[in-house]
Specification:
Blueprint: E1 2-4, H1 5-15, H2 28-44, E2 50-52, H3 60-65, E3 74-76, E4 84-85, H4 89-92, H5 95-105, E5 108-110, H6 117-125, E6 132-136, E7 151-155, E8 164-166, H7 168-175, H8 182-189, H9 204-214, H10 217-225, H11 233-241, H12 243-253, H13 275-284, H14 288-302
C-alpha cells in the first residue's frame, strides 16, 4: 500500500475539526492521518506500507518545461531549495510532528530529492511483482492503474471512508479512455489544480475521442502533420496552435517510474517500533485515541501475516 501522504494530511486537516494539544499545538491533521492509516490497514491488511513523501512538491525540471506548473500555489520562490508552497500555518506546524509519529511507529516514509511523492509512488508501483494499492485524492495517479499488474487506486476525493476503487474499467467508464492513456488525456484536457493549461478548446470529450482514434500523444501529433489523417480542421488547428505545449507537457504529467529508491524497510510493523515514544507523543499531543486505534489495526494485520 502506497500512500500519497500530503494528499491525505491535507484532507485530514480540512476534514477533521480543529483540535489542539495541551500546549496549544494544532493536531487535527496528525490525528486524522493516523485514523486514515488505521482504517486502511484494518480494511485492507497490507503486508507493506509506505508513506510516500514530497521531497520537492514543484520540481524545477517540471517548471522548466511548463513554467505555469503549480505556480498558483507558490508563496515564495527559493533558488537553492524547493519553492515554498501555500500551506495553512496550523497545518505546516503539524508536518514535523507527523514525521515524528510515523517514525515512532516504524512506518516507512520515503521521498526522493527533486521529485514528488507521485514519482516515488510510480517507481514503487511499477514492476512491484505483487498487488499494489495506491491511496490518493490526485487524479494524476490514475495513469498507474494496471489490471494485469494488479495495481489499483483507492481514490479518496470524497473521503477515506467513502473511497472509490479505481480499476481500468472505472477509468474508462468515467473518462472514456484506458488508464494507460490517462496521462495524455490529462495533458490535452489540462488541470487547473496543477497549473496545466491544456489545449485551448479541447475538453474531456474531445480528448477522449482523439485518444480513441489515434491511441496516444505520439499518434495525435503525427495525425496533426498528416493531411490524410482523420482529423477535422477545427481540432487540427487547436492542436497545431498548442504544439509547443504538447512537446513538453507529457513529460511533466507522466510520473517517474525509474527512480533509484531504497525498497527495503517497507514491511508494515506489527507493533510500534518505539512504543515508549509513541506513548509519550500521544500523551503530549492529545493523540491517545488515534494512536491506540493504529496500534490495534497493526495488531489485526499481524494476525494475517
Amino acid at each position: 500500500m502506497l500512500l500519497d501522504t500530503a494528499s491525505m494530511y491535507f484532507r485530514a486537516f480540512f476534514g477533521v475539526p480543529e483540535i489542539t494539544a495541551e500546549d496549544g499545538t494544532p493536531v487535527n491533521a496528525v490525528r486524522g492521518l493516523l485514523d486514515f492509516i488505521a482504517r486502511l490497514v484494518r480494511d485492507y491488511r497490507p503486508t507493506d506500507l509506505v508513506c510516500c513523501w514530497d521531497n520537492d512538491w514543484r520540481p524545477q525540471w517540471r517548471v522548466d518545461l511548463v513554467p505555469s506548473y503549480k505556480a498558483h500555489r507558490v508563496v515564495e520562490e527559493v533558488e537553492t531549495a524547493p519553492d515554498v508552497e501555500e500551506v495553512p500555518d496550523p497545518l505546516q506546524r503539524q508536518v514535523p510532528l507527523i514525521l515524528e509519529v510515523l517514525e515512532a511507529f516504524g512506518i516507512s516514509v520515503l521521498g526522493a530529492d527533486g521529485y514528488e511523492a507521485d514519482d516515488v509512488i510510480g517507481t514503487l508501483a511499477t514492476g512491484a511483482g505483487r498487488p499494489v494499492d495506491i491511496v490518493t485524492g490526485d487524479r494524476d495517479l490514475f495513469q498507474l492503474v494496471d489490471d494485469d499488474a494488479q495495481v489499483r487506486v483507492l481514490y479518496i476525493a470524497r473521503g477515506v471512508g467513502k473511497h472509490e476503487l479505481v480499476t481500468n474499467d472505472w477509468v474508462r467508464g468515467k473518462y472514456g479512455v484506458d488508464a494507460r492513456q490517462y496521462a495524455d488525456f490529462a495533458t490535452l484536457r489540462g488541470d487547473t489544480s496543477d497549473g496545466l493549461p491544456g489545449v485551448a478548446g479541447v475538453g474531456e470529450k474531445t480528448a477522449a475521442t482523439l485518444l480513441g482514434r489515434f491511441g496516444d500523444m505520439d499518434g495525435i501529433l503525427a495525425a496533426v502533420q498528416d493531411p490524410e489523417a482523420d482529423l477535422g480542421p477545427g481540432p487540427r488547428a487547436k492542436l497545431r496552435a498548442a504544439g509547443d505545449y504538447l512537446e513538453v507537457a507529457p513529460t511533466v504529467v507522466a510520473v517517474a517510474r525509474d527512480l533509484d529508491l531504497d525498497r527495503t524497510g517497507s514491511a508494515l510493523p506489527r507493533t510500534p517500533a518505539d512504543p515508549e515514544r509513541v506513548l509519550a507523543l500521544a500523551r503530549r499531543y492529545n493523540l491517545e485515541g488515534p494512536a491506540q486505534r493504529l496500534v490495534e489495526a497493526l495488531s489485526l494485520a499481524a494476525t494475517d501475516a
